[in-house]
Amino acid sequence: MTSATEPDSRQRSFGETLKEFAKPKMAMMLVLGFTAGLPFLLYFSTLSVWLKENEIDEALIGFFSWFGLAYSFKFVWAPLVDRFNPPGLAKIFGRRRAWIFVAQIGVALAMVGLGFTNPAASLGATALFSFLIAFSSATQDIGIDAWRIEAAANDDEQATLAAAYQYGYKVGMVLSGGVALVIAGVANFPVAYWAMAATMGLGALVFAIWDRRFGIQAAAAAGIILLAVGLAAAFGAFAGIFEAGALWAVLLRALSWLFYGVTAIGAVGFVIAVTLALRDRPEGSEFSFRGLILGLGFAVAVFLGVAVFAALLGFALPKLFGLLGIEMSKGDVAKTAIYIAAAPILACAISIPFIRRLKADAPVMRNPTFAPFIDFFWRHGWIALLILLFVSAYRLSDIVMGIMAKPAYTHMGYDAEAIGIVSGTYGPWIIFVGVALAGLSALKFGLRNTLVIGAVVSVLGNLTFAWLVNQSSESLLPLFLAVTADNIAGGYAGTVFVAFMSTMVAKSFAGTQYAIFSSIYSLGPKLVAGTSGVMVEFFSGGVDTEATVAGYSQFFLFAGALGVPAIILSWFAHRMKPDRESVFDNAPPPVVAEGKA
Q1: Is 86 in a helix, a strand, or coil?
Q2: Per residue in 400-410, pLDDT tens?
Q3: Looking at the domain assignment, is residue 476 inside a domain?
Q4: Which of 214, 301, 339, 532 sees the fewest Cβ atoms within 10 Å?
Q5: Taking the model in full, what pTM does it have?
Q6: Beta-carbon count within 10 A of 55 CB
Q7: Nearest by Cα to 467 from 541, 560, 337, 358
Q8: What domain range is 446 assigned to?
């Protein structure tokens, strides 16, 4: 039997490869991928269209993306999620599921709050609830990532689990980045956010009853609904390419309404299955309504506590800067962010010599708080620095470019509904092509080799936007072409990169060490990406200058060039291996609190 750390080097047939995706744990990853993907676009991408329509300038729109840094700093509270049992819920779900459920409740509450704000009149409130969406979603990711890593039988299976996760993730993105914008175009943005909150609530409900009798049926019905809605919206998007009344337009519209009919049938089945599941007492858990109420109270208390802390911090910092006489322009903020982006890598470089000199039996190596961090650098030495540089560089081009994509569409003249149809609804389905290719490629040709291909196609896909902004917005075709190229490349690179990071962690510290990787991979790029609006203004003629087509075009060329270091580093990925075994390879780390995973 293949070990948990060694890939199966045997060449699989195509049929054997497909069987990997039919395992029950793959279905679980689809559900978790959906609940992780739903909030992702709602705090910066979809929101950026709302902000642009309210005439918020590009620089501020770019700064809003920094709320996504919650994902980068989630390693701070990851040890808490790894070891602490949420009151009431841990006995019902187990620790991992309990924390995921708490985070899902937080995401839904934040979406409801964001719907009640007005960016033009209360930008501060909009910012607060955007941050709460990002924070709750990052907390959910800690639990999901740990579950996925622990569930994998070997390194190659990390690729198939990552692919299943990405499929579910993109379905969530179809709703939040596509359907939400269509709803906003037909009604308004508050209604769109409330609809997404209701969807997240349903996702949390399905996850909560997963292990009950009829729970699988409820999840299957929910999956049918989600897929049907996505297909209905996708066919509607394809119909938009053709003139009204054309044969293909009529056929595609007919298919769209057919899948809306399937959605209605699935909704009936979902209600029946959920009703039956709620009547069933779950086996193997200490379910009680008192525990459930206690757990829900804990979830709301955590949400309110973080909200109050964030609001006080947001109010106090400007006051503090004013008292100290500190005044920063948009350009100063951008420069400071870039300096901060380099700080973690520098700190790691300084720490490595001291960590490498530690003996395996040193007390700090057994400390439940510091062990997950020290273990990685102790095992890898200076190779750890190369890994962190690679992790920071691999998606840099995508992340920097992505912040300004939807503002660029709006600047070209596309409305929210058109952007939702092409970028939000059609786009994620095309990502599936890249996701599938990455999963199959990693299994067939090896994970390390696939990294090189991903780095190259990622840059090529991003460069299409430099062409796009010079095209007319009278037709959706240029937008379709650019989104197609970029999303296939992004799906491929993103999937293989998640699998690569998953192979680098010690399973004894799966949740915390993966959080470290995902934090490093996004921290620097997201700090730089937050300055993307300033870059657009700079390329348009100077900071505080109104954005131009030429400014956007030059910005996208620059963003593509940022991917070149990743191409170079990917050639050395096969050498990024530890020269020591973890001190916990044969002995589990100390456990602070007992609970089911």
Answers
A1: coil
A2: 888 888 888 88
A3: yes
A4: 339
A5: 0.72
A6: 8
A7: 560
A8: 16-211+282-575
